[in-house]
Amino acid sequence: ETMKHSVLVTRQIPGESLKRLREVCEVEVWPEAIPPSREELCRLVKGRHGLLTMLSDRIDGELMDVAGEQLCVVSNYAVGFNNIDVDAAKTRGVVVGNTPDVLTDATADLAVSLLFAASRHVLPAGNQVREGEWKTWEPTGWLGVEPSDKTLGIVGMGRIGKATAKRLVGGWGMNLLYTSRSDQGDVEKELGGRRVELDTLLAESDFVSVHVALTDETRNLIDADAIGKMKSTSVLVNTARGEIVDQDALVDALNRRAIFAAGLDVTTPEPLPADHALVKSPHCVILPHIGSATHTSRNAMSEIAVDNLIAGLAGKPLRCSVT
Ligand code: 8YV
Fold it and tell me: Would you report the helix, strand and coil content of the chain in percent, each value rounded to 5?
């Protein structure tokens, strides 16, 4: 067969891997910084054999049908794949790939950064300087909380949860509680962690860091009830998915000082409008979903995503498959 495969890449990606892709197929790359709308995506996927997609692209059965029967692989540029209807893909014989492992360290580093930033008012204090409001030094100004020897609660002890725990247990001597679908012997041995129910974790932890995948079971896992169980001195960190935390409940808790602070790399929606109560809260640090944003991590994600696409087009097993 002489006809080349046709693929759509829905954003510009860093690194050299698109060159490899161009050697084996026709590639169209969405050129804008703003993602394609649903309408544009529907127009662009028609007739494609492969898609390299982002979290901002909703890839459901309808979109796969619009693409056509020749579609054989969807390669997601992320470890999380909640934007893809995996069952719909399976039904249609479409394989789905993701980019695990290579962003574990970068995301764990950012979780720790958010934990410290939220604990020490890094953003509002820094802004005070920028805005010319640094008038004096106050013994009672900007008092924060310290992590040393406190209790860390990791919600979801997967790769990123484990890497975050390692940093904070090893570096700051934190005691570790965690929730997980399975008992993790190595975590108990290496880090002295104790697997507990979520309620216990929330009640006993000084710092709670969320690392579960977004599924029907974890949507709104950290709701008003859950936040209500947390200590008034505790800090909540979320680098997983915005939908796992009930944002109205979080705003309410921060306003009432029912928890100390929050650090979020993920929100609902993304981008979060600047007039949102969470953005306005002096007790909340929000970053624009940059967990995996390092040169090392994003270049490696590009490599895996392109490897997945090339393998899928050739009908071979993907380097990292979720189907
Ligand atoms: C993505 C992410 O890189 O991997 C994930 O699951 O959330 C991020 O690393 C980013 O959202 C681009 O899709």
Answer: 40, 15, 45
Residues 230 and 300 reside in one and the same domain: no
Same domain, 240 and 216: yes
Whether 120 is catalytic: no
Distance 4 CA to ligand 1 centre (A): 29
Give the residue, by CA position, lying nearest to ligand 1 atom 8.
Answer: 78
The domain that holds 177 is classified in CATH as 3.40.50.720
Structural domain contains residue 199: yes
ipTM over 0.90: yes
Residue 64 CB coordination number (10 Å)? 22
Q: Is residue 322 part of a domain?
A: no
- Does 77 sit in the ligand 1 pocket, CB within 6 Å? yes
Range of the domain at 35: 5-102+296-313
Span 129-157, pLDDT tens digits: 999 999 999 999 999 999 998 999 999 99
What are the residues whose beta carbons fall under 8 Å from the beta carbon of 282, sequence distance 6 or more?
A: 121, 124
